[in-house]
Every structure is written in C-alpha cells, then in structure tokens.
Amino acid sequence: MGTFIQLVVDGLSTGSIYAALALAIVLVNQATGLINFAQGGMAVLSAYVAWAVYGWGVPLIVAILVAIVFSFLLGAVIERYLIRRFEGGDPDTAVVVTIGLLTLITGICAWIWTYNNRLFPSLFPLETLQIAGAVISVRSLGTFIVIVAMMGVLQALFIGTKLGLALRAVAINPQSSAFSGLPVGRLLMVGWGLAAVLGAVAGVLVAPQLTLTPGMMDSALVYALAACILGGLSSPVGVVVAAWLIGVLENLAAVYVPFIGHDLKIAVPFILIFVVLIIRPQGLFGRKAVVRV
C-alpha cells in the first residue's frame, strides 16, 4: 500500500507540471480558437528571464514578478504583430506559425544562455513530509496547490467574469463580437498575454525540478497537449484532472503492468487518448460543439 500511495503522489506531482502548461494552452484556445504549440518555448523564455533577473541579486519573488510582466507583454506582442496576420485564415497555417515560433524561441534561448543546465531556485523549501507511508516533497505539494489555484481562477474567469465571457465570444465568432461593440483586437492581445503569464508560472515551477535548459518543456508540452485532448479544450478543470490522471496512470502502469514497464509508459497517455476519442470525442469534460447550418 505504501508503494501504491507513493506512486499516486509522484504521479500527481508530475501531472501538475503537465497541467500548468495545459492551462495556458486552454486559455489561448478559449480566447482565439487556436492551439499554441509555442507555449512551452514562451514558458522557458520567461523562466530564463526570471533566472537572469535573480542573478542580479534581486529577490526570487520579485524576479518572478518581472518575468510575469515580461510574459504578458510578450504574449500580447506576439498576438498583435505575428498571429493576427494569420487569424481568420486557414487554421493549419496558424498552427505551423506557432510551431515555427517554438523553434525560434528555443534557438534564441540557446543563443543567449547556451544549452548548459542552469540551476533555478525553488519557491518552496526542499524538505519532505511523510504521510501514510509516502514521502511528499514540500516543493511538489506547493506546485500542486498553485495548480489547483490556477485552475480555479481560470474556471472562474471563463464562467463568472465579463472578460472571460468576452474572450469566449471573440473566439467563437469574432465578426459578431465586433458588431456587438467588443474590442476584438484588444481582447485577443489580453488572451495571449494571460496565457503567457500562465506559461511563465509553469516555467518557474518546472525549472527547479528539471533544471533550466532551452528544451526543458518539450516533453511536458506533449503531455500537456494529451491532457487537453483528454480533458477537453473547453474545460480548465478537465485538463487539470486529465493531466493528473496521466501522471498517476503512467506511474502505476510502469510498476504494475509488466509488459509496459518504464520503457513503454510514455504510450499510456496515447492509449487513453485513443480510447477517449472513440467514446467521447470532445474529451472527458468538454462540451459538444453545436453548429448552425
């Protein structure tokens, strides 16, 4: 039982990393209707900014706040001067643009800071707690709490605020939103900026656990996209639950399913995706899209 609890705890900790990035992807999708494959690269760049500012002798929390402000401006500028040129056209073109942006940002990070591993300080103490036979690090527990808070804020934003409802309206039908008097361009910039802020939070949470490198979020991005598909792009709560489910099932399968083991555990989320898409194509918590014809 102790081993099982430990695997579940470790899976929730790993899943929280995927969830942080998945929430940023959901926010961009809800605000613009696009999937931003560059979200991981933007998170890494923000983490590097925090690391560089911290290196100047600034307190860590202030360095993270600077990185958050930088991230919001970065997301807004990218939407205004790059993505907007492709919005309203072929969605596949915009997807290719975000993939190219990911490559560009990763290259810029490598050019400025090289590919050497950098040690990023943790917001939380490095002590551990022992609960029900499982060893839980305070850092993992802190990450879990932050992700739950982010999930709640994002869900409340989309459901209970005028800004969230306006972002969703713009994503569904920008033309009708413009006719209704909504500032479509400004809302799109705000959506990308807020998503970049979520990515920045993900970056500074992940960097102490993985060490800071230009490709730090590459594998996490794959799992985050899997969580978005499983949970449903319309549900922040759904993608977080899906990310935790992926982390836990991956760990359990690696230990308790002999033919999977640690080498094939990466296939677990893709098997889940295959099953869910057959049974419920909109995701576990997603809503069916109704289109008038």
TrEMBL record:
Give the primary localization class: membrane
| Topology relative to the membrane | Multi-pass membrane protein
**Where does it live in the cell?**
Cell membrane
What stretch or stretches form a coiled coil here?
none
Annotated Pfam families? BPD_transp_2
Keywords for this protein: Amino-acid transport, Cell membrane, Membrane, Transmembrane, Transmembrane helix, Transport
Give the transmembrane region(s). 6-27, 60-82, 94-113, 145-167, 187-208, 220-246, 266-285
Spell out the InterPro entries in the cross-references: ABC_transp_permease (IPR001851), BCAA_transport_permease (IPR052157)
Record PANTHER family: ABC TRANSPORTER PERMEASE PROTEIN (PTHR11795:SF451), BRANCHED-CHAIN AMINO ACID TRANSPORT SYSTEM PERMEASE PROTEIN LIVH (PTHR11795)
Q: Which family does it belong to?
A: Belongs to the binding-protein-dependent transport system permease family. LivHM subfamily.
Protein name (Swiss-Prot/TrEMBL): Branched-chain amino acid ABC transporter permease
Taxonomic source organism: Microbacterium salsuginis
Output the lineage of the source organism. Bacteria, Bacillati, Actinomycetota, Actinomycetes, Micrococcales
